[in-house]
Amino acid sequence: MPPSTSYPPAKPPDSPAEDSESDLEIDLEELDPQLDLGTEHTGRKGLSGQARDTTHQRGPRIALRTLRMGGLRRGAKRNGYGELGQSHGGGYDDAEALLRDEDGGDRRYSDASAAGGDDAPLLSGHARNPNRRRGSLASETLRRVVLRLPEFMSGAAADRGNQDEEVLKEEDDPSSSRLVAVGSSQSTRFPPNIVSNAKYTAWSFLPLTLYNEFSFFFNMYFLLVALSQAIPPIRIGYLSTYIAPLAFVLVITLGKEAYDDIERRRRDNEANSEEYTVLQFDEPGKTGGARSTRKMKSSHTPKGPKRYVPEGDRLSDIQEEEEQIEGFGSRKSRAWTTVSEVSKKARDLKVGDVLKLSKGHRVPSDVVILKCLSNDPAVQKHDAEGPRQEESLLLDHAADAGGSSSTRGLTEDVREAAEGGSNGETFIRTDQLDGETDWKLRLASPLSQNLADEELVHLRVTGGKPDKKVNEFIGTLELLPSRQDAMSTAAFSQDEDNSVKAAPLSIDNTAWANTVIASHAITLAVIVYTGPQTRSALSTSPSRSKTGLLEYEINSLTKILCFLTLTLSIILVALEGFSNTKGSIWYVKIMRFLVLFSTIVPISLRVNLDMGKSVYSWFIQRDPGIPGAVVRTSTIPEDLGRIEYLLSDKTGTLTQNEMEMRKIHVGTVSYANDAMDEVSTYVRHGFHLTSSDRQALVSPSTSLSSAANVGATRTRREIGSRVRDVVLALALCHNVTPTTEEDEDGRMVNSYQASSPDEIAIVRWTESVGLRLASRDRKSIVLEATGTGRTVVKVRILDIFPFTSEGKRMGIIVQFYEKRKPGVPSLGSGEIWFYQKGADTVMGSIVAANDWLDEETANMAREGLRTLVVGRKRLSAAEYQDFSAKYQEASLAISGREAGMQAVVSRYLEHDLELLGVTGVEDKLQKDVKPSLELLRNAGIKIWMLTGDKVETARCVAVSSKLVARGQYIHTVAKLRRKDAAQENLDLLRSKTDSCLLIDGESLGMYLTHYRTEFISVAVLLPTVVACRCSPTQKAEVAKLIKEYTKKRVCCIGDGGNDVSMIQAADVGVGIVGKEGRQASLAADFSIEQFHHLTKLLVWHGRNSYKRSAKLAQFVIHRGLIIAVCQTMYSIALNFEPEGLYKDWLMVGYATVYTAMPVLSLVLDKDVDENLANLYPELYKELTSGRSLSYRTFFVWVFVSVYQGCLIQGLSQLLTEVDGPRMVAVSYTVLVLNELLMVAIEITTWHWVMVVSIVGTFLMFVGSIPFLGEYFDLAFLLTVGFYWRVAAIGAMSLIPTYAAKVIQRTMKPPSYRKVQGI
């Protein structure tokens, strides 16, 4: 129970008197505990000049890094990640301090101590948890003491809404959290960092493959038939004649599966063998004692009156304190730890390893970023000078509104020292993880960024259990006194001397596996999750064995054949009578008949089909039109010819993710292509500076150079002015940073870094027309004239409003320098402008009234360009100060902070902006995407685009790629949260089935949760569906839903790690070998290098594979059925006795050497050539109905088999003898010749292999006759009677069959005959 003592009530959250979190409100007295003015309620002024009441005596010192880094992120938008790590300074010590405080003792300072370290206010005290006010110290501390939450979760739920509290406790169970000692061995064993796309292990291969094989009915049927031959009464012929074919089929199938899996493992091994640089921390000797002791809290701390210390002394004292705190660890660390670099393969990386990553490196596992070190020499030089400026960090940087100019100058130095150089920032590309094209900014924790490499082993990371959430992470980073402390699992509390420090970690401090480092900086990161526990691995479903639709269709036909076999057996026994004769029991006779008729379900069918699949795979991989194609799953090539739904990724699949500025409109004139030269001329004139004043700079109000515009008309001068203004706006309003890097030839080249490729494209364009971004940091931007290299514009950045998916716009407030001189201009000395760019949907209401914006943005959108509207507004110094004060006040609010800040921006800035122009940026499509999509649509394939990118981006690509037809209505469903609205959208779509649906991930999630069937029933009717902001799991779920609902074949194509789940969920998964990785192509069934290769894969290879396999399957069934009919006729003639007609070798030879090669040669048949197949994609559309192998065609073949079998066996018995070697010789010879000629009749396009196989098989049969004396009457074969009987029976069998085929083709020609003009 909490004590009953009352505490002073906390002030309201927004009370100005309690805004202690503001960096503007830091008192000098807070920095030194010895400073005391004698009273507890003394009015004083902070640096901003505002009076405040101090209601508490100040506690322990705030270290300088707290102030520096706290100011660094002021006003930045933060996600609520809780106050992880604050409990390290809490617990009973806080309770003790609280009770002492009641007696007038020294009260602990909540901001500095509760969050666990001098860095913590950056994340948990200031930015992460703004509602931690001094006024609520008592109640907050008391709450912590009473609840005693586990260390990992203390305070984590404090910042969340009540509705999320239980969820957080359940998901972030501290019992499943992990402690990771940086650079050291771990006390817990974690899984190895191995990528595996293999389906089987050495132990699971045989059980799984055998299960998959015998799950098919006809394999199980043959197994039972083979096993039945072990029973003497049922045995017919040799046991090997039944066991050998089955074993052969299994060996072929298992061998193919093994080969495919070995290839997957080989490719995985390539990824696992990638080399990485790891920091190795060695200790030459061990310390004499055990773990280093930490100073305990002393209860004898003197509490005498504080004295005033001159400012200079305070500065030196604080600097000395900082050096002591930092020096303690560094001296100790350097004495006992040496750092070296070693190379490790990806598979050998372990949790706790510190990776050294640079630009272009794929991150091999989930890591937490510790340090970011710039490669830029200028930045490194700045870093070296940084420590000299630390004494100035005492003052804050927002004192521009008042105070002297010297204070302002000092403030700028402060900000420069804090923000320049290696600021712990790096960019990563996540398109392989979530499909988003924008680069993501990642930050090193300030606790680790400033540590020497040797001290990294003193760090310990606490993280939650592995999960799929790629956009969330909650953890803590602790700096402990020694390496042994970091390696232990014990909990540590923060000491008064700050020897233990802690800082929260969030998603901003991480880089997940398969992301790519995009910055030029060296990034040091510690591995937290490896192998199967990484986010990308958990988001990927396990590999599964895929079975083609043709297999299922043949399986169902086999059941029909088996039923016919059983029926026929029972009928034959019934005709003889069920009475037991000659010691045979009736059911034994039925069993013998079943064995005799087992050829009806031909085991060779699997062999032929599997060999056919191997041939199709060989064709695909050797096709020069699809270079680099790889077949990774050779069991489903026929499904390529049955695709009805294509689900495609966008980034890297349809687009190259390379942006290019294509068009700009300035109100009266539009520029594109060659007209950009005119823009360059206007820019050159607009930023022309006379050589008389080398210090002069251009500002928006600078008039155009009269010398440069001699003779220009007034209209041209106006256009020139507009062009200059819009180019200047585009050169300033962005978040791009220029960098230099070394190219392959060793030359230094300029490049740009930004989170959005759009912005880089625009900045590159401004450089191409004459205005280059020369340098940029957090406080200034410098622009140069490209032609002269002279600095023409320099601005001071006052505020930045970053782009958000909700706001769809970004803005910047800048102050222009009038002269090139050192120092920072006062607010009154330079022009202040607000620039903003954004989507036309939001900017239309922000800019001033005009009559051309809507029309021009619509025109650009029709061209598939991504449009941005650019505007500006001039502010006076007073207006800016008024805005800044209100904005700062809104940023400190606890409830409704974001809305309040946006309201201030809208009120003061976002209205009546001067409209400068509209830009059109093109996302370059992959080669031949437009014609490929059109061809696939004509082939009857419905195309869905599933992407993790933004709604606007997806819309533009859908239009530019012609996925959406010109003028087609696009129905957008976004931010859907209400069920009634979801139902209304479905009703609307039902009435407009020719429209395109554009839906975001949030709305899709609602439909998949509440309206699965209703949604998919409507969506499959639409010609196109575009889903944006999709998670990998949602992509896979959509693919499964379409499969379940439509029972159609679904193909998924993608190039990134975020597409793997979708690819594996599809019936056919196609992976594109992307620029950034091979993960999708490794997991796919088919791998290609370009999207346009998909058309040939489907329309040509897919069509051929399906038609060939359908013909092959039916012919093999015919081959087995005809011999079963002959057997039936023979048994009837023998008074229904189950005696074999063709025994032993004749039976095996018929299914193998005498017919196998000609039948298998059907896999080389083709009805049309490739050009016709591409010219008439409608031919592909026919296949989706499955007419090539249907019940109708099946029963036609059954009828042909019955006709030919009855004729061949009946006439053989009539013309020779009922039972004897002469009848067998005639019957068997006609049977073999009939099959060879039937193959010839079925061939559409002859191939030399077909001719060789038919002629060769015939010669082989003739050559083997002398060895068949056991079965044939060889003397009879030398007589004329044998030949005329064979010719007559063969003619009567084949001529009617061939005549029927010719008549049908004439009366009702197939489509391929029509397009051939025959």
UniProtKB/TrEMBL annotation:
Biased composition (Low complexity): 111-120
Ranges of compositional bias, category Acidic residues: 16-33, 164-174
Cellular location(s): Endosome membrane; Membrane
Membrane topology: Multi-pass membrane protein
Cofactor needs: Mg(2+)
A GO term from the CC aspect: plasma membrane
Composition skew (Basic residues), residue ranges: 292-306
Residue stretches making up the P-type ATPase N-terminal domain: 186-240
UniProt-listed InterPro entries: ATPase_P-typ_cyto_dom_N, ATPase_P-typ_P_site, ATPase_P-typ_TM_dom_sf, HAD-like_sf, HAD_sf, P-type_ATPase_IV, P-type_ATPase_N, P_typ_ATPase
GO annotation (BP), single: phospholipid translocation
Biased composition (Pro residues): 1-15
Signal sequence, start to end: none
Positions of Mg(2+) binding: 649, 651, 1055, 1059
Catalyzed reactions: ATP + H2O + phospholipidSide 1 = ADP + phosphate + phospholipidSide 2; a 1,2-diacyl-sn-glycero-3-phosphoethanolamine(out) + ATP + H2O = a 1,2-diacyl-sn-glycero-3-phosphoethanolamine(in) + ADP + phosphate + H(+)
Record field: transmembrane: 560-579, 585-605, 1112-1133, 1145-1164, 1189-1211, 1223-1241, 1248-1268, 1274-1299
Family annotation (Gene3D superfamilies): Calcium-transporting ATPase, cytoplasmic domain N, Calcium-transporting ATPase, cytoplasmic transduction domain A, HAD superfamily/HAD-like
Principal place of residence: membrane
Entry annotation: catalytic residues: 649
Family annotation (Pfam families): PhoLip_ATPase_C, PhoLip_ATPase_N
Sample GO molecular function, one term: magnesium ion binding
Comp. bias regions, Basic and acidic residues: 97-110
Binding site for ATP: 649-651, 759, 803, 837, 866, 947-949, 1029, 1035, 1058-1059
EC number: 7.6.2.1
Stated name of the protein: Phospholipid-transporting ATPase
Annotated source species: Parathielavia appendiculata
